[in-house]
Design goal:
With 267 residues, the chain is mainly α. It has 2 domains: 75 residues, Tyrosine recombinase, N-terminal domain (DNA polymerase, domain 1); 170 residues, Intergrase catalytic core (hpI Integrase, Chain A). It contains 14 helices and 2 strands.
Length: 267
């Protein structure tokens, strides 16, 4: 059951992280229940609600619903639980910290990590997408990715980043292939990137809570809207299915809210 589901997901072109997450959910279900029945599905949902935060509950439900689709039982799909969205964004690296981070990495000749955060923050790529970028894509100026159902998402590499990155790659005699490699010459992992970014944040006295791969994707969205107030275009760039998902970036971070309140309210 699990092996067939995993093959189904891989054939559907889902990312490695998504496949791993969905397979984990099915394993979790199968360890508790002998068979897939409507009662067992409802019981599993209740257990999830009692054990996890709503966002994680919905992630597990999405995985189970995907499995139900794969076995032709769409009518058994579980409804998601409601997630109460906060009125502000949390743990997003500020533009000042991002600029400071870049300066520190460049100063210390940590160019590999300089370009890791540059690409994340200047393309809006997810870390799994970042790992697919090749020298050829940098030279071309974009990377095309196809999701389940054949939907195309184009990740653009802007001229300023393209020029700087090509100089770095050429200086290292890198004229083809994936650009983010580990010391063994294989593609670095998402986990490896996350761990090292935390270490670098500590080195430069930046709050580690705001230094993680997805934080730079958030930074991309915030910066884009500040410079180009086209939320529909941003939704396309981010690869969001719905523009409603993108609207969160119209909100300020809690720090930005507090600063604005301090400046405005003086009565």
């Amino acid at each position: 059951m699990i092996e067939e589901f995993e093959r189904h997901l891989r054939d559907g072109g889902l990312s490695v992280n998504t496949v791993s997450s969905y397979v984990f959910a099915l394993k979790q279900f199968s360890e508790q229940y002998d068979d897939v029945t409507r009662k067992n599905l409802r019981d599993y949902k209740v257990w999830l609600i009692e054990s996890y935060k709503p966002k994680t509950v919905n992630l597990r439900i999405r995985a189970i619903n995907c499995y139900l689709e794969s076995i032709g039982k769409e009518k058994w799909k579980l409804p998601f639980v409601r997630v109460q969205q906060k009125a502000f964004l949390e743990n997003v690296i500020s533009e000042a910290d991002y600029e400071y981070f870049k300066e520190c990495l460049k100063r210390d000749d940590e160019m590999f990590w300089y370009f890791v955060i540059r690409f994340l923050a200047a393309t809006g790529a997810r870390v799994s997408e970042l790992l697919q970028i090749k020298t050829e894509h940098v030279r071309l100026g974009y990377l095309d990715l196809y999701s389940k159902g054949g939907k195309l998402r184009r990740i653009y590499i802007a001229k300023a980043l393209r020029t700087e990155a090509m100089e770095w790659l050429e200086s290292n005699c890198r004229d083809s292939g994936f650009i983010f490699l580990n010391r063994q010459g294989a593609r670095i992992t998402a986990h490896g990137i996350s761990v090292q970014l935390k270490k670098l944040a500590a080195r430069y006295n930046i709050d580690p809570a705001v230094v993680y791969p997805h934080s730079f994707r958030h930074r991309f969205a915030k910066n884009f809207l500040e410079r180009c107030n086209d939320i529909a275009f941003l939704a396309d760039l981010m690869g969001h299915e719905s523009i409603e998902t993108t609207r969160i970036y119209l909100r300020k971070t809690s720090t930005e809210q507090r600063t604005l309140v301090d400046e405005v309210i003086n009565w």
